[in-house]
Structure formats: C-alpha cells, structure tokens
C-alpha cells in the first residue's frame, strides 16, 4: 500500500491542533496479528494466505477536557468506540492505514481536502436529486453499498474457492451479506473493540443496523475513489472473520 503521504504524521498534526498538546498522551495504538488459520465459522473461506498480516487498533484514552471531547464528537470520532484499520502486511503499513482512514472520516488528510460529509453531499446532489426525503437518499446509499458488497464477496469467495459451484457460491455470499450476517458481525466487532473506522455502532434495530453497514460499504467505496481492490481489502477484512487481502 505504497503512498508518498505519511498519514501517521498528518493525523498527529491534526490531533495536536485539537488537543493543544502532544496527542500521544491521549491516543494509543495497538496491533493484532492475523491467525494463519481461518475461523471455522466462516463458510466462505477454505484457505488463506500464510503471509503475516496485522491491523492497527486506535483507542482514545480517558479525556477529561469537555472541549476536546465535543470537538472530536463534532468531527465524528466517538471517544467511547475503539477504531481499527484493515489488514496489512506489516505493522507500519497497518498504522498508516488506520491513520489514513481516521483522517478521511474526520475530513481531510491524504490530499482529500474535503470532509466525508461534503463528499456525501455532492454525491447526493449528483445521484439522488430526484429524491424527496433523507430516507430515500439513505435507501439508495444502502443499495449502492449492497451492490458493491455483493461483488466484493463474490470475488473474494472465488479467490479462496475457485472451483465452487454456482449454488454453493450463492450460499457462501449470502452467509456474509444477509441482514442477519451483517448485524451479527457488527455486534461482534463492537463487542471485541474492533469496529472499523466510519462504521457506526449497532443501534439494536436489525434492519436499521444492516442498512448502516451497507451504507458504510458505500462510504468506503467512495472515499477509496471507487477503487474495487482497495475497497475489497477494507471490506473483506472487516466482515469476514480471519480473512485478509494482500496487495
């Protein structure tokens, strides 16, 4: 995941402006190493790369300054929800990926120059100008995410099970993208402190939470400039237990 931008330094500078002091006092980075064996609960997976993979978890320590917590909240960073990036071949790349994702969700960094909310607004104007309610816009967003999610998972299942039959392929994909599967995965991620950047925490309402995950996929697709490979790397590592994609 080569990049000329040092996202760790970019995030450090942004948080330093918010905190007014060294952000290392408040921000903690920890790393998770992928198991070489897939979870038996994942029906889609038959085998995985034996290469090492890591992802970076970002946690905000106790912040007593209400001004800081309010400013982070306004930027969309909930201090009570740990965040994590996608699987990467090294800890260094994992940290860069997590910082890059946080910068995108906070609005800026990596040369984006615009907030996620602004880009969503532009997309809404260009693709949903005929719609008359926020509910309609959200449903279209979820449809976009669902379409991307299904294509990503079809390609993923074929990559690990190239000789799978059409029927088994359909069942494997459904086991990942169904409303029940998305809601279960979202709850599991929040319980384990592994909620991906930009994915909202569960609300407790099944349909609403499944829609939120589909919208999250659409968000990732957009901020990744509609690049299917980078979108797949993030989405698969978040929604399939034990799975990761190397560049």
From TrEMBL:
<dbReference type="GO" id="GO:0004525">
    <property type="term" value="F:ribonuclease III activity"/>
</dbReference>
<dbReference type="GO" id="GO:0006396">
    <property type="term" value="P:RNA processing"/>
</dbReference>
<dbReference type="InterPro" id="IPR036389">
    <property type="entry name" value="RNase_III_sf"/>
</dbReference>
<feature type="domain" description="RNase III">
    <location>
        <begin position="127"/>
        <end position="184"/>
    </location>
</feature>
<protein>
    <recommendedName>
        <fullName>RNase III domain-containing protein</fullName>
    </recommendedName>
</protein>
<dbReference type="InterPro" id="IPR000999">
    <property type="entry name" value="RNase_III_dom"/>
</dbReference>
């Amino acid at each position: 995941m080569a990049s000329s931008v040092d996202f760790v330094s970019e995030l450090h500078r942004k948080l330093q402006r918010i905190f007014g002091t060294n952000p290392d006092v408040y921000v903690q980075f920890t790393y998770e190493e992928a198991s070489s064996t897939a979870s038996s609960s994942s029906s889609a997976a038959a085998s995985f790369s034996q290469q090492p993979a890591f992802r970076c978890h970002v946690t905000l320590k106790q912040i007593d300054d209400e001004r800081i917590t309010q400013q982070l909240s306004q930027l969309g960073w909930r201090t009570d929800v740990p965040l994590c990036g996608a699987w990467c071949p090294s800890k260094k790349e994992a940290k860069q990926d997590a910082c890059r994702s946080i910068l995108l969700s906070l609005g800026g960094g990596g040369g984006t120059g615009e907030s996620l909310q602004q880009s969503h607004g532009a997309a809404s104007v260009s693709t949903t100008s005929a719609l008359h309610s926020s509910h309609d816009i959200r449903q279209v967003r979820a449809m976009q995410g669902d379409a991307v999610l299904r294509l990503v998972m079809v390609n993923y299942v074929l990559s690990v099970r190239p000789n799978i039959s059409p029927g088994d392929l359909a069942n494997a994909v459904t086991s990942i993208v169904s409303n029940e599967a998305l809601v279960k995965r979202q709850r599991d991620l929040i319980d384990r402190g592994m909620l991906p950047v930009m994915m909202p925490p569960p609300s407790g309402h099944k349909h609403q939470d499944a829609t939120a995950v589909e919208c999250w996929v659409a968000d990732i697709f957009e901020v990744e400039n509609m690049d299917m490979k980078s979108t797949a790397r993030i989405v698969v590592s978040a929604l399939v237990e034990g799975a990761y994609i190397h560049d």
